[in-house]
From TrEMBL:
Pathway: Polyol metabolism; glycerol fermentation; glycerone phosphate from glycerol (oxidative route): step 1/2. GO terms for molecular function: glycerol dehydrogenase (NAD+) activity; metal ion binding. NAD(+) binds at residues 53, 110-114, 132-135, 147. Its cofactor is Zn(2+). It is an enzyme of class 1 (oxidoreductase). Its EC number is 1.1.1.6. This is Glycerol dehydrogenase. CDD domains: GlyDH. Binds 1 zinc ion per subunit. Gene3D superfamilies: 3.40.50.1970, Dehydroquinate synthase-like - alpha domain. Signal peptide: none annotated. One of its GO terms (cellular component) is cytosol.
Amino acid sequence: MTSTGNSATGDTSATTVDRVYTSPSRYIQGIDLIDRAASYLRPLGTSPLIISDEVVWGIAGEKLEASLSRDGLEASHEIFGGEASMSEINRIAELVSATGSDTIIGLGGGKTIDTARAVADHAGLPVAIFPTAVSADAPTARVSVIYTDEGVFDSYLFYDRNPDLVAVDTRVIANAPVRTLRSGIGDALATSVEARAVNRANSRRMDDTARPTLAGLALAEKCEDTLFAYAHQALRDNGDHIVSRALENICEANTLLSGLGFENGGLAAVHAIHNGFTALDGDIHHMTHGEKVSFGIGVQLMLEGAPEEDADRYISFLQSVGLPTTLAEIHLADASEEDLYRIAELACSDGETLKQMPGDITPTDVVQAIRAADAYARNLQDR
C-alpha cells in the first residue's frame, strides 16, 4: 500500500493536493462606473497610481483621473510601454515609492493588467483592475502572463491573492471596437472546453498547486451557456454602442464567469497551443489573444477525439461570430512542418498546461491535431 502521508503525525501536506477556490475580493459592473470609481477605490487607499498605455489614457484614463480627483483621491499615472516583461514591471515598480502611491490601478487590456498586478505585488499594495475591453478573462485572476521584451511567452507569475477590485464600465465596453468583444468570446468559450478536460483527467489548476473545484466547472459551463444565448446580439449592440442586457451578460461572461472558470476549473491544451504560437514570427502576432485561442479550441477538440456533434457545435459557433478556425485565418496557411513542430514543442514543454489533459500527448500528436483542426474547420465552412 502506498503511504499518503506521515501516519505517526497525520501530516499529509507532502502528498495531498487540496481543492482550492480563489476570486477577487469584489467585482463591480455597470454603466458609467468610472464616474463612481472613488466610492469603490477609497477602501483600498487615497493615492492611486493609474497604469495605462497612451491610447487608453486618452479614451478612459484622463476621465478616471479627473473623476478620482473630483471625489478627493490624489491620483497619478504612468504610461505602460506595451509589453508585460520583467524589465517593464521593474521600471514601473521603481516609480511607485517616488509617487507615494498606496494603490495600483491597471486600466486597459491584458498586458497592462498583468503588469499592474506584478507592480502591486512587488510593492505590497492593493490592486484594482479596470478593463477597457472584455477581450480576455485576465482581469479577475491572480496570475500574470510574462513575455520577453520581444513579445515571446516567458512564464507565469502567480500571486498570493486575486485583485482587490475588478471594475467594468459597460459604457466604455460598448464604445470599444467590436473585435475586442469578439476576441473575448473566443477566450471565454475555451473556459468550459478546458475545464471539462481537466475534470476528466482529475488534474490540477494552472498553478499546479491545487485541484479545481466543482464551483469552477459550474461557472465555466454557465459561461458557455451565456455565450451561446447572447453573443450574437451583444456583438450587434456593441457595433451600435448600446449597453443592452445582452452586452452586459457577455461582459460578465467574458470577464467574471470565464475568469473564475479558468482559474478554478483549470487550463488544458487550448492555452498551451496559444502560447506555442509565440515560437513563430510573422503575421500571426497581429491576431488577438482570443482569436488565437479560438483556433486552439479546435486543436484541443481534435486531441480529445471529440464526437462530430461536439466539434460541429463549437467550431460552427466560432465561425458564426467571425472568429478564426483555420490556419489561413490566423496567417499560418503556409506554415511548414518545422513551424508546426516549433509550436507543438513549446506547447508540450514542462511549464505548460497541456500536461493537464488526460493521457500523454506528444509534439507529434499536437502537429496532427493542428492539421486536423484546420481540415475540419475548412470542411465545415464548405458544407
